Amino acid sequence: MIHRKINIKVKLASLAICTVLLTSGCNDEDFLTQVNPNTITNQTFWKTTKDFQSALTTVYGALQFQSISGNGLIEDEIMADLGGTESWYRPYAYRNFTFNDASEAVTNKWANLYTGIFRANQVIEKIQSADPSIFAAGEKESIEGQARTLRAFFYFLVANTYGGAVIHTEVPQTKADFNVKFSSIAEVNSQIIIPDLEFAKANLPETWSGKDLGRVTWGTATSILGKVYLFDKQWGPAATEFKSVIDSGVYSLTANIMDNFDEEHEFNSESILEVAYSATENPGANGSNVDDTPYAAGAEASNLAVGLAQLNYGGFNTILPSYFLHELYINDAVDVTNPINTTNLQSKRLTATIAPKNLEGQYYLRNVAELKGWGYGQSAYVKKYTNWYHLANEDGNSRSGINCRQIRLADIYLMYAEAVLNSTGDVNEAIKYIDFVRTRAGVITLKQYLATNSNTFPQLHISKEVHGNQPLVPPTKENVLTHIHRVERPLELAFEGHRWKDLVRWGIAKSVFTELLADENWRVKNFTTIANKAPLYIIERIRDDFKNAAVTYTPAKNDYFPIPSVERQTNSQLNN
């Protein structure tokens, strides 16, 4: 498809820019005595708009790295309350918080994010000294604005994954340039992210079209800036940024939530930051090979689907929906008066996100009677971002063409509601935007609950199976915030890479783990009574997702990944 062009890397350009990056860091030693006149160098590149556009394409290409938008998201999700895994899978260490500074995901995510940062830095640095006559009107500012938006996004992920970042705004020229201290989240925000996004907001268009569809926009930059303020508990500025996105009229919720997780509806009205993948580009390349290497071409495909999908249908089900999430979807009752609910008893969010044993419709083109699995305590499997809706099995070469939606409007609605509650306490405004999301899902809205339950609504996150009932509470600021934290964001955004950062910024991970461990222990004690019965239909055993996590997790040690050991070895400032 034509709109993939911006996100699918230009191979020769990618290699050229990476070559410039690698050699530019060694100017203090004269390794080369002769120059091949046919080689692309810092001196011969950066002369035309095509050069800058090609370099910018490699920055977009870094979004495709698996640690950023692919299978590497699984470790983040396993650490939270919505997913578990089996003890024989490598991510089990993340479920139990026993990983360390040499663990693969810790090292890979840092490397992937800084590759994106260095690519962006090249474009930003070189465009300052470029001949202005080579650019069309506004083109220079647009290229820089895109690079700065992407750099801000990469730095946002570094800062909120590792608790800060090593700040580089220029391409290092000497070994000494790599020895830079670790800066706090606040320093990264003030020195890099906020200035980058303010520049981008002033210089990017609201929309792109044609072959440029998929580039970052004013809305992308504004949404990221809102998240920066939200994470920093600057509630008023966060609400302002989110509301400007909402009021722009550029975005709207899709009619069907599933449109955000398939190939047929890419770059739709809800999409604000989307990472493109292709199942057909470079056929034969394994989905794990994103960027070019000396021995393998980049696949341009995602390997996320194979990590999520059910074992019997070409996947590994590396992450499994927690019993908490499974029951949360069950308890989120459909609104029978909503016209989208004609024959279904399960919500559209459930259908798009998980596959329980009693699922409605088909799964990998099979009816329920034909399906295998759901044994050994596995009550459900992940559907979101898998190819269950159009393939009989996942690709044998770990290739998926489903784009990763990093930011979408439903997320903005919920973050806006959170910011409003914390800034002004306007419960009605918050419920309004929560209910936009709930209406699209086809479930009973908070407004409907309040109207039929004497101005109260149920605490849907409380296990009905374990506790027998769910308390009804009034719509206070605190209760609606709890609903956002424990119900709405989990149901709407499960397995999209947000949950762990949410738990950390709210400071509730420990209490959530403790609560879910108590539910887990109840199910173990009462297993003979609940086995193979509604709502979860668990058989053979209770999976112990929180047995170790509730004990091992400590905020000071586990909220953020440690700085990778290899970085401490090469950057002396990280050991101070």
UniProtKB/TrEMBL annotation:
Q: Which family does it belong to?
A: Belongs to the SusD family.
Q: Where is the signal peptide?
A: 1-28
Q: Name one GO cellular component term.
A: cell outer membrane
Q: What residue stretches are annotated with the SusD-like N-terminal domain?
A: 48-230
Q: Which InterPro entries match?
A: SusD-like_N, SusD_RagB_dom, TPR-like_helical_dom_sf
Name by which UniProt lists this protein: RagB/SusD family nutrient uptake outer membrane protein
Domain annotation RagB/SusD: ranges? 270-575
**Membrane-spanning residues where?**
none
Q: Mention any Pfam family matching this sequence.
A: SusD_RagB
Q: What UniProt keywords apply to this chain's record, in alphabetical order?
A: Cell outer membrane, Membrane, Signal
